[in-house]
Design a protein that fits this description.
Distance between the termini: 42 Å
Helix content: under 10%
Shape: elongated
Number of strands: 19
Order of helices and strands: EHEEEEEEEEEEEEEEEEEE
Number of helices: 1
Strand order of the largest sheet: 7-8-11-12-10-9
CATH superfamily of the largest domain: Lipopolysaccharide (LPS) transport protein A like domain
Radius of gyration: 23 Å
Largest sheet: 6 strands, antiparallel, barrel
Strand content: over 45%
Low-confidence stretches: 1-30
Length: about 280
């Protein structure tokens, strides 16, 4: 297998790191009400009042509705809280097991904001799903922006976050696009959750101010420092173009490689490139 050292492949490094940082911010602040470490009650208020549907075990808050638990705030046109009664005989009160936010949804925690048309917290299953209808789903931090046409999910028990439908992660002029972006978390020795793997699926596109890359799939392993783009990989830097079947970026050594396709595949088993000479302006 031949390989070609390619400086232009470093374009992918900053983008994968961007997506890691953004999803670490999501997990660190925990936009999910379902956190098992959070025993605080969920408080709900609304301008037009709260309707208590006892037979359905539902609270319906209408008009600029607001729910808060700790440092996490949820705003929407209306909120529907599904609850269960713990123990009537012992008068132990109620607990909310699901919260639906409908219309102009805005979720705010220290340093982060998320926007969508509908949001569902399944407290029992520890899943947050924020979906889009009229607008893109958006997640914002001070430095990063993540958007998706369909939805953004956070699976707390699986320690996984997923953005679906033309998903885009952006920091300044660096952009990563794919049909699906997924981040996986695990706890370090200090007990803090950190991203250890990022996966990008279908129509993967990477861009900075000067460079672009496309591929079928992208994977970044944080522990090894290696990012890999696979399937119909193409790279552009100005008018120069390279293409192959696999690109490997080692963040620890700073060496990037573009690998050829198998001899039996289209392309004849070679890395291909077109390098345009710089023209003298004179």
């Amino acid at each position: 297998m031949t390989n070609y050292l390619c400086k232009g492949l470093n374009v992918a490094v900053g983008i994968f790191v961007l997506f890691i940082a953004a999803w670490q911010a999501v997990q660190a602040q925990t936009l999910n009400f379902a956190s098992t470490d959070n025993k605080q009650p969920i408080e709900i208020n609304a301008e037009e009042g709260i309707e208590w549907q006892r037979d359905k075990l539902v609270f319906l808050a209408k008009g600029n509705a607001h729910a808060v638990r700790g440092d996490v705030h949820v705003y929407a046109d209306s909120l529907k809280a599904y609850y269960r009664e713990k123990d009537k005989a012992k008068n132990k009160g109620t607990e909310i097991w699901r919260l639906d936010a409908i219309g102009k949804v805005r979720i705010v925690s220290p340093g982060q904001k998320a926007f969508g048309d509908k949001g569902v917290y399944d407290v029992d299953k520890a899943i947050l799903i924020l979906t889009a209808q009229k607008q893109k789903v958006r997640f914002l931090t001070a430095q990063d922006k993540i958007t998706a046409d369909k939805q953004i999910e956070y699976w707390e028990t699986k320690q996984m976050a997923v953005a679906r439908g033309n998903a885009v992660a952006q920091r300044q002029n660096r952009v990563l696009r794919a049909d699906v972006l997924a981040a996986y978390f695990r706890k370090d020795r200090q007990g803090k959750s950190k991203v250890y793997r990022i996966e990008a699926f279908d129509k993967v596109r990477v861009a900075t101010k000067d460079e672009r890359a496309v591929a079928d799939r992208g994977v970044y392993e944080v522990a090894t420092g290696i990012a890999v783009l696979t399937g119909n990989v193409r790279m552009w830097r100005g008018s120069d173009q390279l293409k192959g079947c696999k690109a490997e970026i080692n963040l620890n050594t700073g060496i990037s490689k573009l690998f050829s396709c198998p001899p039996s595949s289209r392309g004849g088993g070679r890395v291909q490139g077109v390098l345009q000479p710089t023209r003298d302006k004179k």
